[in-house]
Amino acid sequence: MFVIIFPIFFVHNNLILIIKKYIFRNDFFINLKIKSLTLNPLLSSYKLNIMKVSIGYKDIKGPWGGGINFSRQLIKHLEKENIDTTSQLNDPDIDIILLTEPRRYTESSSFNHLDIKNYILEINKDVIVINRINECDERKNSKGLNKFLISSSQISDHTIFISDWLSDLFIKQGFSKNSYSTIHNGADGEIFFPNNRNKLSQKLKIVTHHWGNNENKGFKVYKLLDELLDKTEIKENFEFTYVGNLPENLSFKNVQVLSPMNSKNISEYLRNCDIYITGSENEPAGMHHIEGAMCGLPLLYMKSGGVNEYCENYGIEYNIDNLEEKLFELKNNYQTYKTKLVDYKFTGKSMVDNYFSLFKKLYENKKDFVKDRNKIKNMNLQNQYKILSKDFFI
Prior knowledge:
By secondary structure, the chain is an alpha/beta fold. It contains 15 helices and 17 strands. It folds into 3 domains: 3-49; 52-186 and 350-374, Rossmann fold (3-Layer(aba) Sandwich), CATH 3.40.50; 204-343, Rossmann fold (3-Layer(aba) Sandwich). The chain has helices spanning 12-24, 66-80, 113-122, 137-140, 145-152, 164-172, 219-228, 232-237, 263-270, 288-294, 307-311, 323-332, 334-340, 348-364, 366-370; strands at 3-7, 36-40, 45-49, 52-55, 84-86, 96-99, 128-133, 158-161, 180-182, 204-210, 238-244, 255-258, 275-277, 299-302, 315-318, 384-387, 390-393. The relative contact order is 0.13.
């Protein structure tokens, strides 16, 4: 539901005509119907309700993974555009549902694909459904998740992937929807931005930060860097800080370890570092390296998963065998990569603009998507089940 505020200068009937003329001059609004017009006597304004978007993430306070940061950015942008947002499926007038997490036991999920199916069949068959896929089995060496995400995406009218690598992976494994796209992640530019510090540290400060503690987050690399710091030449030129959660039984000798930080605090910390390293393997995209890049830190990254789509041209690719060499290569070419980050393109603004454009496009063509909702009744959709700590998808 789009919300537009108009001051009261006209009587009720004339105001509606004026509003309609204003709306229909805009190509996007040409096919929209005015749902309701309500008067707020305290504000002396009218509220024109046109669109409502439901996003399937809970807003969890404190440090959390990249999904919550994505949701917060999108909600902030939609509200600036005067769009009403919710995280539930209680209202009968929702126009667009964004499914972000179909696993019902995930703490951040506020609804799943089966909830959406019931909403369409019982409450509102005219809603547009979009699902966002940002996970895969390959990231954590799990089983069954990819098939589950392909199954749950049947409920949607359009699927968003967060990297081309991820969309290619799913297509190879059976994803066959015609309506899909890639929208790359981005961090909030009001929080993550570079400082004006021109002088490098005497020792270049290398940093990374993760909420998750799965082995594939890069701990083989971070342990290797810890060992390299035993060498005098490395120790004299570099230091390394890890911010976030660690796997059990992992400890470092030469690495400073800090607890997870919220967005404001981590951004301030990153701005006082020099190099951002990510060792993530098979990561669909991630937010950590994006936040580092937007704080002005040249990147050290592995060619794995969707990460290199974001990092290429903004730092140096390395592998487990040449990390020491690449550390010095980046040090010796530091200003070259620092300068390239001025035009870093994976920003939060770019991301939310792309989501908003997609919402408008799908809404304009709404009738093409909702004309045959009866097929949803017979969809055989998998669900998540949990026995002890193990997930099953049936």
